[in-house]
């Protein structure tokens, strides 16, 4: 069995979720989004949801201990044996280390960086906030989430580049256009 372990990384608003669904379908693996897991728990008013709601609405990161535990549980589910596409995790250096301990040598095959200009993604998110009324999408929070990304997540890019697994893709443009670039980039890196 071919196992495909991927990560998609990029600023909030770059369109990671949309593209993640397509990539995961293509490789026959589950897309695992920590943001989606947290939002589902907030919606369902679970204990976890109550714990993380205020943090998420402020644009800060949920504590690593909690986030790592959720990912560990998810990766232990049956559908992850064929691999997975992580979306939104790991998001800082500590989480990269935690993931490495969890998977014990089953390292990522490729990391897709969806690049997008900050002003462009902020504009997109403001528009989405207007349409959907998301609680974490006030302008102040949107900008804060971009800062958190730049400070905590962007440094990971260099690390994956050094490992030779980074695939850079321009995230601006039509969804299909970006999907094609991703497909070309991943095929070149993975050979499949
Ligand atoms: P996202 O949909 O990936 O942008 O995630 C929405 C929010 O969930 C983030 O702004 C964080 O508050 C929280 N979150 C998602 N993934 C993580 C993570 N890996 N570590 C910490 N917090 C996270």
TrEMBL record:
<comment type="pathway">
    <text>Purine metabolism; AMP biosynthesis via salvage pathway; AMP from ADP: step 1/1.</text>
</comment>
<keyword id="KW-0547">Nucleotide-binding</keyword>
<comment type="subunit">
    <text>Monomer.</text>
</comment>
<keyword id="KW-0067">ATP-binding</keyword>
<feature type="binding site">
    <location>
        <position position="173"/>
    </location>
    <ligand>
        <name>ATP</name>
    </ligand>
</feature>
<comment type="similarity">
    <text>Belongs to the adenylate kinase family.</text>
</comment>
<keyword id="KW-0545">Nucleotide biosynthesis</keyword>
<protein>
    <recommendedName>
        <fullName>Adenylate kinase</fullName>
        <ecNumber>2.7.4.3</ecNumber>
    </recommendedName>
</protein>
<comment type="function">
    <text>Catalyzes the reversible transfer of the terminal phosphate group between ATP and AMP. Plays an important role in cellular energy homeostasis and in adenine nucleotide metabolism.</text>
</comment>
<feature type="binding site">
    <location>
        <begin position="60"/>
        <end position="62"/>
    </location>
    <ligand>
        <name>AMP</name>
    </ligand>
</feature>
<dbReference type="InterPro" id="IPR033690">
    <property type="entry name" value="Adenylat_kinase_CS"/>
</dbReference>
<dbReference type="GO" id="GO:0044209">
    <property type="term" value="P:AMP salvage"/>
</dbReference>
<dbReference type="GO" id="GO:0005737">
    <property type="term" value="C:cytoplasm"/>
</dbReference>
<keyword id="KW-0963">Cytoplasm</keyword>
<dbReference type="InterPro" id="IPR027417">
    <property type="entry name" value="P-loop_NTPase"/>
</dbReference>
<dbReference type="GO" id="GO:0005524">
    <property type="term" value="F:ATP binding"/>
</dbReference>
<keyword id="KW-0808">Transferase</keyword>
<feature type="binding site">
    <location>
        <position position="34"/>
    </location>
    <ligand>
        <name>AMP</name>
    </ligand>
</feature>
<feature type="binding site">
    <location>
        <begin position="13"/>
        <end position="18"/>
    </location>
    <ligand>
        <name>ATP</name>
    </ligand>
</feature>
<feature type="region of interest" description="NMP">
    <location>
        <begin position="33"/>
        <end position="62"/>
    </location>
</feature>
<feature type="binding site">
    <location>
        <position position="95"/>
    </location>
    <ligand>
        <name>AMP</name>
    </ligand>
</feature>
<dbReference type="Pfam" id="PF00406">
    <property type="entry name" value="ADK"/>
</dbReference>
<keyword id="KW-0418">Kinase</keyword>
<feature type="binding site">
    <location>
        <position position="134"/>
    </location>
    <ligand>
        <name>AMP</name>
    </ligand>
</feature>
<feature type="binding site">
    <location>
        <begin position="88"/>
        <end position="91"/>
    </location>
    <ligand>
        <name>AMP</name>
    </ligand>
</feature>
<dbReference type="InterPro" id="IPR000850">
    <property type="entry name" value="Adenylat/UMP-CMP_kin"/>
</dbReference>
<feature type="binding site">
    <location>
        <position position="39"/>
    </location>
    <ligand>
        <name>AMP</name>
    </ligand>
</feature>
<dbReference type="GO" id="GO:0004017">
    <property type="term" value="F:AMP kinase activity"/>
</dbReference>
<feature type="binding site">
    <location>
        <position position="128"/>
    </location>
    <ligand>
        <name>ATP</name>
    </ligand>
</feature>
<feature type="binding site">
    <location>
        <position position="145"/>
    </location>
    <ligand>
        <name>AMP</name>
    </ligand>
</feature>
